Amino acid sequence: MKFFWPLFAAFILLQPAVPILNYVFNYDYIVDELCVNRDRPELNCKGRCYLMQALADEASKKKDAQERGAKNNLQLTITYFLEHTTAWDFKFLKPRPKNKVEDCYNRTVTSGHTNQILRPPIFS
Residues 6 or more apart from 49 whose CB is under 8 A from it? Predict the structure, then answer.
């Protein structure tokens, strides 16, 4: 993974120079076969016409990509949904009934027994 990012960065940086590198490495083939002015040696072109055409093609591709990107940005749509309601419900404002906690202590123990069993201590 360490080596991937530098190679990727180098590829991205050298991508605009691909036509020039192609011209340098294939110079003889371009001069002999692809040059438009090979029939007129007095122009002393030596394949520069092919290089200029390749650079123009690269620039037009870049321009087309930018235009497509601009068109895509213009076609960005925002979807917004709002549900229209006519009746408002304010349940959150109404007081809720409190749940009564039942204690079984009051039902099972009568006051008569508590007086006999539970007496405060008497200090003399």
Answer: 35, 36, 37
C-alpha angle 7-10-14 in degrees, rounded to nearest 5: 140
Length of the chain: 124
Q: What percentage of the chain has pLDDT greater than the value 70?
A: 70
Decide: pTM greater than 0.70. Answer: no
pLDDT above 60 for 74: no
Which distant-in-sequence residues (6+ apart) come within 8 Å of 7 by Cβ? Answer: none
Query: 26 exposed, middle or buried (CB, 10 Å; 0-12, 13-18, 19+)?
Result: middle
Cα atoms found within 13 Å of the Cα of residue 32, Cβ hemisphere only: 4
Instruction: Copy the structure tokens of residue 83.
Output: 């549900």
Residue 102, classed as helix, strand or coil, is coil
Task: Quote the CA–CA distance of 12 and 18 in Å, as a whole number.
Answer: 11
